[in-house]
Specification:
The protein is an alpha+beta fold. Helices cover 16% and strands 11% of the residues. It has helices at residues 30-40, 62-75, 110-118, 134-137; strands at residues 21-23, 88-89, 95-96, 169-175, 198-201, 217-220, 229-230, 234-236. The chain is globular and about 45 Å long.
Length: 239
């Protein structure tokens, strides 16, 4: 069941995902993104003086993030998942909204992200990703000094995924809608209706625990970057 009873997280509704999914164990780090920047001779984003290495990469607009996803696909001999305009691509390079046809690395949809954060089929229904105690699993304003922290230092969730509550907001593939009414079908949902902002999930090191709840949603214009906004990659498991 995706969502909550009120506000931007409503209505709570049952969702079915009919495919398997690979999800990054951690948010993409500066170490990983800097390697990409070196490979393509691209300027590295600012780290706010907090440090690089295993901290989540931040200060990237949405299009920079999908460019990284396409580069990662190329490095592994996979078809690109994104057109330059942000639309998803199938295995033949044609635009699609069918997630089962997208083979390359991409950003999770909202539904995929929430399912993974809850712990998938192993979920125990925790409020945060892996615990009802946010301090066990996430970085937020009360324990982070409002700075991002190295990934993997808190406990993982039921699927072994780290930092899905707090540390950085994570870009998703979907365009943002104010709620789920009419925007989130029950089968493999993906909102490709062009709007002003893209979805972010997970909360951040600079905010209170309310934002780190699994169901919490936020949005940002795709042309904007944030110092506590990063991303995590995923890939449809093609059989």
């Amino acid at each position: 069941v995706m969502g909550e009873l009120e506000g931007s997280e409503s209505p709570a509704h049952r969702v079915n995902l009919t495919y398997d999914l690979y999800v990054g164990k951690y948010p993409v780090t500066f170490q990983e993104y800097d390697r990409y920047c070196d490979a393509i001779e691209y300027s590295s984003p600012d780290d706010e003086g907090w440090g690089r290495g295993k901290r989540p990469v931040v200060n990237l607009v949405w299009l920079q993030v999908i460019e990284y996803c396409n580069w990662l696909s190329e490095m592994e001999g996979l078809p690109a998942a994104y057109h330059v305009d942000g639309n998803l691509l199938d295995e033949n390079g044609r635009k699609t909204n069918d997630l089962l046809r997208v083979r390359g690395y991409r950003l999770p949809t909202e539904a995929e992200w929430e399912y993974a954060a809850y712990g998938g089929k192993k979920s125990r229904g925790y409020r945060y990703s892996g615990s009802d105690d946010v301090d066990e699993v996430g970085w937020f304003e009360g324990n982070s000094q409002s700075m991002t922290q190295e990934v993997g230092r808190k406990a993982p969730n039921e699927l072994g995924l780290y930092d899905m509550s707090g540390n950085v907001w994570e870009w998703c593939s979907d365009w943002y809608a104010d709620d789920y009414f009419g925007q989130s079908p029950n089968l493999n949902p993906y909102n490709d209706l062009i709007d002003l902002e893209r979805v972010m999930r997970g909360g951040s090191a600079g905010l209170d625990p309310t934002c780190a709840r699994v169901t919490s949603r936020e949005s940002l214009e795709p042309s904007a970057a944030g110092n506590v906004v990063g991303f995590r990659v995923c890939r449809t498991a093609i059989k």
